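Quick log. Single chain, no ligands specified.
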Amino acid sequence: REELAQKLGPFVDDPERAHDPRLVIPSSMRNARFLLDHDRVAAIVIAGEPPREPTVPAARDASNALACPRPLPPADDDAIGACLGGPSGPGELIEVGRDEVLLRSAAEPDRPASPIKIANVIYAVPLRNPTEGRDELVAVKRDDDASGRTWSLAVYRIEAGRAKLVAESPLYTLTAVETRWIGVDVRDVDIYLDLVSRADSIEVAGLLTARVKDRIRDVVLISPVTVTRRHGKSATGDAGTDPTDTPARTGSAKL
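-> predicted structure:
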């Protein structure tokens, strides 16, 4: 990872895009995807750059990084900075725990964190909503059972200091029967997701990998899935509870 930054320059830092922490996109090669395995490059994929969605200039100006800056965590902190509460707030630090995502105030990083219960969460990252000019929290989780694996997305917005679930959707499902056709166990298949924020939705795409004997053998592009945000009081519920009305869902795409 460090050598990539030295040789290719800074990585893409677009608040309206987010991706798996194991995926690196250099600013000088925006159509390249470097897959990292324990911080070492395991594969390189050349892919098309997702198109920008046209927005009115005011919305685009409000959504840039300067309008709602993301705080930098302390040097010895692995948390990710986010602007979830809006530009007038101090910003937040995101940290993933066991079956939960922890939010801490950037102004008081040593204070106890506020947990959002998310079973089987893998990682959580900030993603800028282009119409609101502030970040939402997007969490990716994976559920494993005897028949296969399912990757899902949950999206939260901070309102009045509380996390509200605004979208939740299964993304991709792989079964043990399907992976036998490519000669691997379903437990050796993984997905690296790339997220692009739109006005009313989040476009999810990425890469699927098959591992053999601790090495990535195959890498393929996967078809995009769209997760729609739902707005309004009836569409949201407190984090960690079941909302009265289920947030927007998108049908799971089988690979």
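Residues 2-8 form the longest helix (7 residues).
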